[in-house]
């Protein structure tokens, strides 16, 4: 029986070259292949390999993951002459990581590590995309010889792991190896996400006359593999850790789904039918009143952190006063309707009220302090309102405009929601081992405010992360500081302020945001009792009712259609990098 399982796992790897040869013959099939590898390998790394590495490696594993994912891009920018060498090294690291993973897979199939038939099927099933990924990663750059050598090493590693099951499993759970595996996971995600080795061979755009739906078809097949592996893992744990976050991810998704469905619907309706706000309303009164109006105008708008920057540029170019513009820049990404409704079940009523008041106060204070020193240049306002980005005649009406706004929201906010839920599900099991939660409350606030400054995260995506941290013992002020600093501050916002105004304005904005987030975090701890007195709402594990399941099904369908229509790579790239433009009509 065990020899049959081993043989099946080896054949699953050998499926890769055959599938690659068939799918790589034309652009449409190449797009299907690209979509399949992107979602299947990305999902397996994020929801299988990474949680195990974090479980055993702790905070160092997170750092190693970040180095593996961002390191190649940083090295390429610093060492322009070594860009190709950086890509080659990243590819080889990814191949080596898959060899190590194949060895652990072999050990997972051996006695006594093997705990059920579901485990064996899960391991065999996820080796289908892994074998395909070897050819997708290495064949275009290194040729057949290196690809076959790597695949041969994976086959040998599988047999070795199967023969030395207990020994491999014992050494596979050491903290040092876990940190290394997290680094490799980051490297693989970098290659899968950016595909630097393929050039434009798999380009899916209008110029190539390849519909994004071909990539979407591959995404659907890849997602099916990931879901099947998740379900089969319930019959056993491939690595003996019990750390896989599937159940927690589902719990968080079920808790969040009703609020997100309502929030997306209201936000899309607001964006579709809210009348354009005239410039003279924002220009009236003294600077403090202008900051107040910019804050009021920005707080409910359905524009997240990745979309507010082009809107702010438009407002500045059309003569909006500095106080109103900066207050809008802070308030808009801090708290939209979706994030507000999501905060109530995840953070509790008290924390939600604190979040709303703090976001308003921070936007008002920073808008007035920074904006009063910005010189305003009058500009003509085009027809269609202060935020119009195209002629009014081209704007669709009625339900077409509503669906357009909904698609815009899903593309700008959806990727951050998915990433936020994934990170929250992965973080929860290791909270007990996180030293940050044992620090004094005041130091926690400062630390999480500083962490939030460079992080490019949507308000809705940050909410489940903070909810899990609060449940694990984080002080409410520290969570609030992250929720304030994360969505509204990042390198892109500093760069925009420096280019539109001057470097001093960008520095004042950074100081105001960081100082304000810390001060409001400390005040929140005083008001809510700090980590010792604050009672975070429980995150239930029980089965949800039909309403939550229905909302989750609807939300999954909407996100799935957005990925199918645009392709998952473009969906995540534009959302996470802020490349997709937001329009507020």
UniProtKB/TrEMBL annotation:
It is a multi-pass membrane protein. Its main location: membrane. The chain crosses the membrane at residues 31-50, 57-75, 119-138, 145-164, 176-193, 214-232, 252-274, 295-313, 319-341, 353-371, 416-438, 445-471, 477-497, 509-534, 546-564. InterPro entries: DUF318, UPF0718. It is found in: Cell membrane. One of its GO terms (cellular component) is plasma membrane. Keywords: Cell membrane, Membrane, Transmembrane, Transmembrane helix. The keyword Transmembrane helix applies. Belongs to the UPF0718 family. This is Permease. It comes from Abyssibacter profundi.
